[in-house]
From TrEMBL:
It comes from Acetonema longum DSM 6540. This is Haloacid dehalogenase-like hydrolase. The lineage of its organism: Bacteria, Bacillati, Bacillota, Negativicutes, Acetonemataceae. It holds the Pfam family HAD. CDD domains: HAD_like.
Length: 334
């Protein structure tokens, strides 16, 4: 095998394929709605009253519901003279409850992936508040946290929505992850890319969510060859949503939100990683074979070019012989 083919093959083999697991947050990784159970009471607001007013505000003004609760939060906190800063949200985030097994989940999944030759990356795609998730104990596990967030005044007080993530615009983040266009304002997310150019192929993406607001992402991931998983609360055992999601073709699998090594979710994700690893090994071998056949293709096209020439120069003849030498195996027809 020629030096250049060997180098090309070594380069192909040294690439570690990537996969992404994208999680909704509320009721997927955490049993609660983050604003309802931590943030709103912490600001001495009545939770039911807060949501009733904010949802009514959305209806009355044809507003996005997320923009409505963000607006409501700023108005209410100002009225009660409570400063809501990024640090305040981070502090509240520390108290967010997580489902059983979540803290140890990421390392176990990453280790399993790495044993199969796959780099696993984790992403949050949530309509909840980014600053709260950033404060939670598991925040460092995520390559990116995509969620609603505030714009802060120079003295650090929340004063305007910076991002409002709702169930339909959640899908843009799947494209961002696949294309490696991570910044929320990067318009390159709409650039056309071939499968080979993708940062993470769509078939290597898993989306995990719990409800109807996850449907656009579940559908998108599934339709592009990835995997969608629905989860339900292990204690409440309320499976109505996942039964419907599965029956309507939104998800491929469902499991209780038990993230321990014994949970079904662990088995499903391990099997998917195995599947992705097998597909990636075959993809690598196909690429290696393309590299090995390249010298022959080069030789044949040079030969065809020479046949068109009226006079064959000695150095062309030598180059042709050189190209032939680089071809592996017997290429003379019997
Ligand atoms: Mg949810």
């Amino acid at each position: 095998m020629s030096q250049s083919t060997e180098t090309a093959i070594a380069k192909i083999r040294e690439k570690t394929p990537r996969m992404a697991i994208c999680y909704d947050f509320d009721k997927t990784l955490s049993p609660d709605d983050m604003q309802t159970f931590t943030l709103i009471p912490s600001l001495s607001m009545d939770t039911n009253e807060f949501w009733a007013e904010s949802n009514q505000l959305a209806v009355d003004n044809l507003m996005d519901k997320n923009l409505a609760w963000m607006y409501q939060m700023i108005v209410k906190s100002k009225a009660s003279r409570r400063r809501i800063s990024r640090d305040y949200f981070h502090d509240i985030g520390k108290d967010i409850k997580l489902y059983k097994g979540v803290p140890a989940w990421f390392k176990r999944i990453n280790d399993f992936g790495s044993k199969q030759g796959i780099e696993v990356q984790h992403y949050i795609i949530s309509s909840g508040l980014k600053e709260l998730v950033e404060g939670s104990t598991i925040a460092p596990e995520f390559k990116r946290i995509y969620a609603s967030s505030f714009l802060y005044s120079p003295d650090g007080v929340a004063e305007w929505p910076a991002q409002a993530v709702n169930y339909t615009n959640k899908t843009q983040f799947i494209f961002r992850i696949a294309k490696g266009k991570f910044e929320e304002c990067d318009e390159g997310v709409n650039d056309s890319m071939t499968d080979d150019e993708l940062y993470i192929p769509y078939e290597n993406i898993i989306y995990i969510g719990d409800s109807a607001t996850d449907i656009p992402c579940m559908r998108l991931v599934k339709s592009k060859g990835g995997y969608s998983i629905g989860v339900y609360d292990p204690d409440k055992d309320d499976r109505a949503k996942v039964y419907s999601l599965l029956n309507d073709g939104r998800i491929d699998y469902f499991a209780s939100a038990d993230y321990t090594a014994k949970g079904t979710l662990n088995d499903i994700v391990f099997n998917i990683i195995n599947n992705i690893a097998t597909k990636e090994k075959l993809r690598t071998e196909a690429e290696v074979l393309r590299a090995r056949s390249r010298p022959y293709i080069l030789y044949k096209s040079f030969q065809a070019m020479m046949e068109q020439k009226p006079k064959i120069m000695k150095r062309d003849q030598e180059l042709l012989m050189q190209l032939k030498k680089e071809v592996e195996g017997n290429i003379e027809s019997m």
